[in-house]
Design a protein that fits this description.
The chain has 270 residues and is an all-beta fold. It has no helices and 26 strands. The chain is globular. The model has no long low-confidence stretch (mean pLDDT 95).
């Protein structure tokens, strides 16, 4: 199995809280991005103290209450399944703070982290403020929910986005990369992909490769898997009959998303 493909760990953290994924610099090639996925039973509580990291708490499914000890956001979250294809609520919390997540119903919660040293206000990112952006053409269509895009001033480093790709389509395509600190042409951003498919027995294919092919991995990605993108191009192909969802987290030395298309394939853009 590729070292870029991460299967769910399903570890019990405490009563009512299960760890689904925990991606750090200790178990991946990532330096800037850290990611956790937790499942929380109704009434259970997850607590964490942040050091020099900021976090975006995404109510992936279910209802949660999030507090940093000063501000509290109650009963946030909008959907029972990501495949309802509607935006959800998230909370941004800056470095050197503590936070708690309480499940008001059975919930799956994404915790998206990146390096941070500058204090910013805690902010509720409301589902109502997130529009649906449609990208691509032909069999290269997808719908995007920009939770924390680079023009959103709420974060120091984090970029967070959801992408829905329909049956038989390609996504993150044509192949593009953002692994060079070479602005204004390209920014250096690491990335994680958390994947789900509908129906749940489905799979997608994801390739991660560099120009010189020193990194070239093609993975069969199943429901609940993660793919790590420390560098390189990273297209996703969705088989007929299945819908793809993925949650992207990006971070790097500068909070700018400026990508570079693979020269061999950028001709498909019309």
């Amino acid at each position: 199995m590729s070292h870029l493909l991460k299967k769910p760990v399903r570890q019990q953290l405490e009563n009512g809280v299960s760890l689904v994924h925990d991606i750090t610099s200790n178990n991946s090639d990532l330096e800037y991005v850290h990611f956790k996925m937790i499942d929380v039973e109704p009434g259970a509580l997850y607590k964490e103290a942040l050091a020099k990291q900021e976090v975006c708490v995404v109510a992936l499914t279910g209802k949660i209450t999030v507090t940093d000890g000063v501000e509290t956001f109650e009963n946030i979250g909008t959907r029972a399944s990501v495949f309802e294809k509607k935006p959800t609520d998230s909370v941004y919390i800056s470095n050197d703070q503590s936070f708690e997540v309480k499940a008001e119903s059975k919930a799956r919660v994404a915790l998206c982290y990146s390096r941070s040293e500058k204090q910013l206000p805690t902010k509720l990112i409301k589902a109502d403020d997130i529009g649906a952006e449609h990208r691509g053409q032909g069999s290269n269509k997808r719908m995007v929910h920009n939770i924390l895009p680079d023009d959103h001033p709420a974060a120091n480093s984090l970029l967070v986005v959801e992408v829905f790709t329909e049956s038989g389509n390609w996504s993150s395509y044509p192949p593009h990369k953002h692994d060079q600190d070479n602005l204004p042409e390209e920014s250096m951003l690491e990335e994680t992909y958390y994947h789900e498919q509908d129906p749940g027995q489905g799979f997608v294919f994801q390739r991660v490769y560099t120009d010189d092919r020193s990194l070239d991995e093609t993975m069969t990605v199943e429901n609940g898997d993660m793919v790590i993108v420390p560098k390189g191009y990273h297209p996703v192909g969705v088989p007929e009959g299945y819908t793809s969802y993925y949650l992207n987290v990006m971070a790097g030395p500068k909070r700018i998303w400026k990508f570079h298309n693979d020269p061999d394939h950028k001709w498909i853009i019309k």
